Amino acid sequence: MVHLTRVAATLIILVLGVSTAPALTFNFTNQGGATPQMMAGVAQAGALWSAHFHDAITVNIRIHAAALPLGVIGHTDSFFDPYSYTNVRGALVSDRLSTDDLSSSNNLQAGSTFSMLINRTANNPNGVVSATPYFDTGLGGPGQAGPENNNTVRITSANAKALGLYPAHSAGLDATITFSNQNIFDFDRSNGINAAQIDFLGATAHELGHALGFISGVDTLAGNGNAPGLNDNQLRFLTPLDLFRFSTRSIGAGGGLGVNDWTADDTTKYFSVDGGSTSIVPFSTGAIYEESHWKNNLGIGIMNPTVSVGTLLQISDNDLRAFDVIGYDFVTLPEPSTRLLSAVGLIGVALFACGKLWRA
What is the model's pTM? Predict the structure, then answer.
């Protein structure tokens, strides 16, 4: 874990959802480039997530504002650590409280390794960094240099805290979020969003979602598309969210229920909590936007990759279900069909990645 020095101007936000239940706490530090208006908005966005989850952890995030590439509104850099699949699976089983938790953990692959559908590896039996997929079981065979990528899960430090794999109140930095310093944001949602501006609270909530763990290692795999590339066992970047990424081909012949699709291509991959039997919503395939999002232009939730001006951004049931199965605990535990945003009075959240959020 990398620890970076923090500067002055710290905001600590603690929101209790119901009764005396513990809550997710954010410790925000201004790196120096964020305006007071931004820091106030960041605090409000943190409170949106805190109202949903009662994980007794502290997430330390540094806020910055700078010139970003054209079209990029925000960007998140998170700190990660590797954990054994055995320990992660055990933590997910120990953490289960909801119906989705029970189903998703029961359908995780048994044993100390997991099989996946993969491509773009240096030792792909179809050719060096070929886009053609193959099954990597970690048990040896063509395209399998070793089991290291089949027994390792890479987790943001915030997500590891929620799973009890990392000290809950460690003072180390968990993520840095950088926003565009252009005058493109509307900071007041009380009267709607200005037709020419971006919902800042929603955009911030989106970026916080990446820091909390809405991340896919397929974004790293996609960068391995040029020779010579890395072998399969060097690509140890599968995340908790990727454990619930499937396609009809990964659960089909040669694979099976629970076998995730960890390929970088345009084939539809979807979020599922029953080992891939049921598709809930599709993930981004990264052709334009990063894999660490929902598929664009379907209104799936806060973790969509783009946002339009004048739009009030919303945390959706889909977003909450994803965070639930990767280790976060709800303030209350309604069934998925009744887990509505209005139940806790949240108004919104937005879209970026690894994260970046793009302007539509």
Answer: 0.88
